[in-house]
Amino acid sequence: MTTTTTAQTGEGSDALRRLILMRWLAAAGELALIAAAQPLFGIALPLTPMLAIVALLAGFNLVTRRRLTRGGPVTDGELFAQLGVDMTALTLLLFFSGGAANPLVSLYLPSIAIAAVVLPGRFAWGSVALSVAAYSLLVFFNVPLPVADAERATRLHLAGMWLTFVASAALIAWFTARMAAAIRSRDRQLAAAREAALRNERVVALGGLAAGAAHELGTPLATMAVLVDELSETAGLNPEAREDLNLLHEQVAHCKRIITGLAARAGQTRAEGGGAISLDSWLEQVIDRWRQLRPRARATVRLHGATPAPQIVSEASLGQALLNLFNNAADADAGGGEIEIEATWDAARLRLEVRDRGPGFDEKVLLAAGRAFVTTREEGTGIGLFLAHAAVERLGGRIALINREGGGAITRVELPLEKIDRVSNT
After folding, report:
1. Which of 176, 174, 186 is nearest to 10 (CA)?
2. N or C: which terminus of the chain has fewer CB atoms within 10 Å of its end residue's CB?
């Protein structure tokens, strides 16, 4: 039979850490009450056994803290045993201070509440059974409190009940609030993990479609190349037509190189065999490649940062992501405007911005970018932006989409260089 443990989700250690803190608070409060019993309330308690119990509880807490430092899974059974130690210590202290007549007997409730929050049902009910059994035994077996004045004893009992209520309410609220915050944090992490898994599934599906498309495009591209060559040999072509044919020939050649590269890069993370290159040179290569693919697009490029630039291992998917972002900006600014590409870096981080003066991003793109295929152009598919998000986030970075003042958009890429840094990969 498989035993479920809170450690499987990382919550066992957090719960034990909170128990240790609560135990220190409880020991401090118990010590203060024992010390104040005679001077403030005129009650003579058996100090030796009660102080010994508090000392043993503190020692056990030190051992528990050392065990937590060593690491390892914290199971539900271990947490139940920890709560059992707290209940046992409380029972012994109550035995020497009036038993069930002591108003502090309600301090069993925080332990029950904690068990109900962090442990499965059988352990929670086990904590209830332990506390009920201890409470029942204290009714019959105890050392009575030596308070002769009945009226004074009633006032002390009421004061003790108030103190117990305050302490129990504070401990339960604190522990429950911390556990609820931990659960909310875990839910956010699970949601992010599910989203990442869904995005990865879509990327894998796109990879399969890309492989099929690359295979199918080989024949029409070869046909186009032959036709372009034949047209170029036609006599009497005017210079503008010949220039257009040359451009078409270059673009067909680029497409053939891209398709050939798909097979070479399939299953590989690094391009060009993982060779090292300076960050500024790599950025220049990516931008030059984009200029070849979009010869009629205009862009102002500014690259500046730490000198010498850090050495990185060129990343094929990241380069493709930047090309997609450059293309999106050029498409948005198709009216003939000039886009701006600016990159800054230091030894640990790259920050790149692509600015255009197009219509900007609508609300649909801002909300769903990176999680679904979204586009505002009739001929667009949204795949480029989706893949750019996937590539950058896989490397620990992020893409921010911002509408620009005065019209247009800014696409900001922030990327730690750790995963593509040459030093960290040698």
Report:
1. 186
2. N
Count the Cβ atoms, other than its own, within 10 Å of residue 329: 24
Check the CA dihedral 230-231-237-240 and report its sign: negative
Distances in Å between the Cα of 241 and the Cα atoms of 226, 228, 406 are 17, 11, 39
DSSP 3-state of 235: coil
The label of the residue with tokens 């019993």 reads 37
pTM over 0.90: no
Distances from the Cα of 125 to the Cαs of 90, 100, 137, in angstroms? 19, 21, 18
User: Which stretch of DSSP H or E encloses residue 379?
Assistant: none
The pLDDT tens digits for 165-176 are 777 777 777 777
d(CA 391, CA 381): 17
Tokens linked to 267: 């299953």
Residues 6+ apart with CB under 8 A from 346: 305, 306
Contacts of 59 (CB under 8 A, 6+ apart): none
First to last CA, the chain: 45
